[in-house]
Amino acid sequence: MNNLLIALLPSALQLNLDFILFIHFILVTIFIGVIISVRRPVGVAFAWIFIVVTFPVLGISLYILIGDRPVGRSLTRKIKRMNHEYAQITEEMRQAYAGDREQLPPESRAISLLAESKNGTPVVAGNLLELHTDSLKILQCFIDEINQAQKSLYLEFYIWALGGDADLVGEALIAAAKRGVVCKVLLDSLGSKDWFKSKWPARFRNAGIQVTEAMPIQVGRFQFRRADLRLHRKIFVVDGAIVWTGSMNMVDPRTFKQDSGVGKWVDAMVRVEGPIASQFELTFSFDWSVDNPKVTHFNDRNPPATPIAGAAIAQQLASGPVYRDDILYQVMLSAIIDAREELIITTPYFGPDDGLLQAMMASARRGVKVTLIVPKLNDSTLVAWSSKSYYADLMDSGVRIAEFHGGLLHTKSLLVDKKGAIFGSVNFDQRSLRLNFEISLMVYNVDFCTKLEKLIESYLAQSDYVDPIQWAKRPRWMHYLENAAHLSSPLL
Questions:
Q1: CB–CB of 281/91 below 8 Å?
Q2: Annotated catalytic residue within 232, 376, 419, 486
Q3: Exactly one of 234, 376, 419, 486 is catalytic; which is it?
Q4: pLDDT tens across 229-286, in order?
Q5: Residues 464 and 402 sit within 8 Å (Cβ to Cβ)
Q6: pTM of structure
Q7: Catalytic (active site) residue 419
Q8: Three-state SS at 153
Q9: Active site residue: 100, 167, 239, 353, which one?
Q10: 118 an active-site residue?
Q11: Which pLDDT tens digit goes with each residue over 135-170?
Q12: Residue 405 known to be catalytic
């Protein structure tokens, strides 16, 4: 009997192995079909196919978690329902401010039309812009704004970190709520996870501040909602007439991520006073209505502020999955292609697709002075290595690359010909351009662009330009590591 069992054992193992290989083949085939069924960039599709075929269990698990762009069925239905109301309001805005576009030079009108397409908001004249570059002073400005507010305070951030002067902002907000100011706080569930676990949510609600957790991560629902789609906007609206936006989260740079080994985070924000604040308030109202399960319609908004004579023309650009797909990408691509003299990009995370990369290279080769400024040290090792994989091609086409060594440069900006700027929460990577809910301020004003240029010059003073000759001499293993990391760039 024992001899018979021993004789049959190899056959049983072979059957089990054949069965496992059959199941592997079926699962991989099914998921390749799923990947192909959704039209997506070729690089993204092939990256997922490679992962699923090479590491089927891990690859399939990752694809279920982050492979598609769903925000959940119920949330998708609510976004589409809210978008009807949003579309009515933006159409009224486009009609009311149609004349403001005529104040733009002809080369700026086309991109402004693109930015307002698919229910976007129009260019608006009469906005007073102030560029702020000191994070601690910005936090104090937030406190001052809160102390002076009369009607409403709406805050929407990806991260509200604990400690430092960020806590003082919270104390000021509590005091404002107690004196009757309507206060609403909308924070991303993942970015502000430590804040939501702290005492602050209860303190806010006890003081009468309304708090909503955006895009909550729910265990067991990953198959219905992609976990890494995040609310990445930075918006602070005061009384419907003033808005702050830019790259800075509600964090104190002296305490935020000090263990990451990259130094302090370097940010910038714009304070805008004027009618464009109502556009940012509209975006906040949209996000608040979508993420707050108790809200079924937009709440009343403050009327637009009176335009300030001779002040800047500006435009809000809101984007995100499900609605306004690819408009942000198209605007960025158009801005690069439209550059005639100079193009400067600052971004902490650089991971363009082939279209954006080719546009940058083509601009440099046709004589545009193209400069890319990125941090020398990055809090994401994979992103850092992947970013470096683009250096050789960019420098070969004439793009200058400057690595900032004064901390983690977190400012996200695009300056075109010193006449137009895109400034906000958008990183120059596929996550910001295609996945996250982002916000940008498009400015058509030379004075503001001059101030932004001076800020960029201060960054360049703390940067080292990458030498193409020395870069070519780097160790071969670095070249392989960068290219390996590059394979993951469509998924970052």
A1: no
A2: 232
A3: 234
A4: 789 999 999 999 999 999 999 999 998 988 888 889 999 999 999 999 999 999 999 9
A5: yes
A6: 0.86
A7: no
A8: strand
A9: 239
A10: no
A11: 999 999 999 999 999 999 999 999 999 999 999 999
A12: no
